[in-house]
């Protein structure tokens, strides 16, 4: 470790040796007022706030009118510098990472410590409505890439002294700040400790996005289902904290993580609570139905056409048989062609520029479907099945949950092609067994269905009136069981 020397010239020589690979770092030498004491500041041009440096550091120090009193560390930090964030380091190795992150190092001749001054210049986009979680009714506020802004957004949701924001650092080479948010008087301490423990075990050079953390702290990496919920919506995070869950915010990403999560949470939307309970319940039931349609409709088509045509009404069966005349492929290959084409179109629509992306998806789907029918590659009834499946998958509010169902849809199709309806039933049983066994931070993924908790069913398939939802979820083992209501 190279310690800070009491000779300014020696320190500047050591720093210039470190600056060989950092051309954006600037050293500015000057004298402190009329005292004749030499000093220097070290800062990164691209990250430090130059106006703050000029007004509150350079001007303040160079304007000192000494009366013969020696320049001391206490005098500089307490009477001269008008900056809120000030720390001290004793080595060059500690100083340079701070400088390269946007802070300014003040080195004074005769001092054996470097003063680190917070001058980070934050350039972030404005607070906007979340694109991935749009609502008809609700706040038009979403997180951005600044951890400071995101923490402030949570604070602004209401005066609450029990909201704890615990800071951590992650990444061995490129360190990033991370905040664990929870309610001190609600959240289970064991849950908070488990979240801290899992994050503390992460050893990576760099963690650029919260998706890395999500993958490294989940319970079962072989499961197709997300075991940590990601969201851009502050209102969703606050609601989860009030239930006793824990949120994770990472600097540099607008996506916060919520743990633990259950499968039913992935099909719920904040809008369920902003509308009256009957409308919220209807919308929620529609989403559960849409999830079933998105998962099983192609598999049911394959099983009925290939194995159980007798279960189809006679007139409909004759219509389907007539439409399939001339189709050279089996029902499985036919369905795979259309499903893969739709998935490619969906992915292409996401990667194209925004003005043409949606048009590409719609027009491309219509053209490909019509051309495939005209060419006799697929039947018209399959085009309808695939269209209904795609539309149903768009009704799922969580993007990562939709991806899980899209993956499982292909597994269901192969099971149906192998064993018909028996294969579909076997697939459903295996899926249910997996969900029942799966846990998220010790909470059963199938809660509140398994284990059965009647009180939690008030916010499961049906969203009961707010005055009836007096208790927090029992599955979370919260300190405070009751929601305070007048």
TrEMBL record:
GO cellular component terms attached to this protein's record: membrane
Which Pfam families does UniProt cross-reference here? GerA
Q: Keywords, A to Z?
A: Membrane, Transmembrane, Transmembrane helix
Mind listing the GO biological process terms from this record? Answer: spore germination
Q: Which residues cross the membrane?
A: 246-267, 288-307, 381-399, 411-436
Per the record, the similarity remark reads:
Belongs to the GerABKA family.
- What is the protein's name according to its record? Spore germination protein
């Amino acid at each position: 470790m190279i310690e800070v020397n009491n000779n300014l010239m020696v320190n500047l020589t050591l720093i210039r040796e470190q600056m060989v690979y950092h051309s954006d770092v600037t050293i500015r030498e000057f004298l402190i007022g009329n005292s004749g004491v030499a000093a220097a500041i070290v800062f990164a041009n691209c990250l430090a706030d130059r106006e703050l440096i000029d007004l509150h550091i350079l001007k303040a120090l160079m304007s000192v009118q000494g009366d013969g009193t020696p320049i001391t560390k206490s005098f500089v930090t307490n009477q001269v510098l008008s900056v809120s964030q000030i720390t001290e380091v004793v080595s060059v190795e500690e100083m340079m990472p701070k400088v390269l992150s946007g802070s300014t190092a003040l080195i004074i001749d005769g001092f054996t410590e470097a003063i680190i001054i917070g001058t980070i210049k934050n350039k972030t986009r404005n607070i906007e409505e979340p694109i991935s979680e749009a609502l008809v009714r609700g706040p038009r506020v979403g997180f951005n890439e600044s951890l400071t802004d995101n923490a402030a957004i949570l604070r602004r949701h209401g005066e609450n002294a029990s909201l704890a924001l615990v800071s951590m650092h992650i990444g061995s080479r490129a360190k990033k700040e991370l905040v664990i948010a929870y309610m001190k008087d609600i959240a289970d301490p064991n849950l908070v400790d488990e979240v801290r423990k899992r994050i503390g075990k992460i050893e990576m050079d760099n963690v650029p996005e919260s998706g890395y953390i999500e993958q490294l702290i989940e319970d079962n990496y072989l499961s197709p289902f997300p075991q940590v919920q990601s969201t851009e919506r502050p209102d969703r995070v606050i609601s989860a904290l009030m239930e006793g869950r824990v949120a994770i915010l990472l600097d540099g990403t607008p996506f916060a993580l919520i743990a633990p999560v259950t499968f039913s949470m992935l099909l719920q939307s904040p809008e369920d609570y902003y509308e009256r309970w009957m409308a919220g319940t209807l919308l929620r039931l529609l989403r559960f139905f849409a999830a079933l349609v998105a998962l099983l409709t192609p598999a049911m088509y394959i099983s009925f056409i290939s194995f159980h045509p007798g279960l189809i009404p006679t007139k409909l069966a004759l219509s389907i048989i007539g439409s399939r005349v001339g189709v050279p492929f089996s029902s499985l290959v036919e369905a795979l062609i259309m499903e893969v084409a739709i998935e490619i179109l969906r992915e292409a629509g996401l990667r194209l520029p925004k003005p043409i992306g949606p048009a590409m998806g719609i027009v491309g789907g219509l053209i490909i479907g019509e051309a495939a029918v005209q060419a006799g590659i697929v039947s018209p009834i399959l085009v309808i099945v695939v269209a209904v499946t795609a539309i149903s998958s768009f009704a799922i509010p969580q993007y990562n949950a939709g991806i899980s169902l899209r993956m499982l849809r292909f597994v269901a199709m192969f099971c149906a092609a192998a064993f018909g309806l028996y294969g579909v039933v076997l697939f459903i049983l295996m899926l249910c067994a997996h969900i029942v066994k799966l846990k998220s931070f010790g909470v059963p993924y199938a809660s509140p269905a398994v284990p059965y908790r009647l009180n939690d069913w008030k916010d499961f398939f049906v969203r009961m009136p707010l005055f009836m939802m007096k208790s927090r979820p029992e599955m979370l083992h919260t300190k405070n069981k009751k929601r305070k209501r007048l």
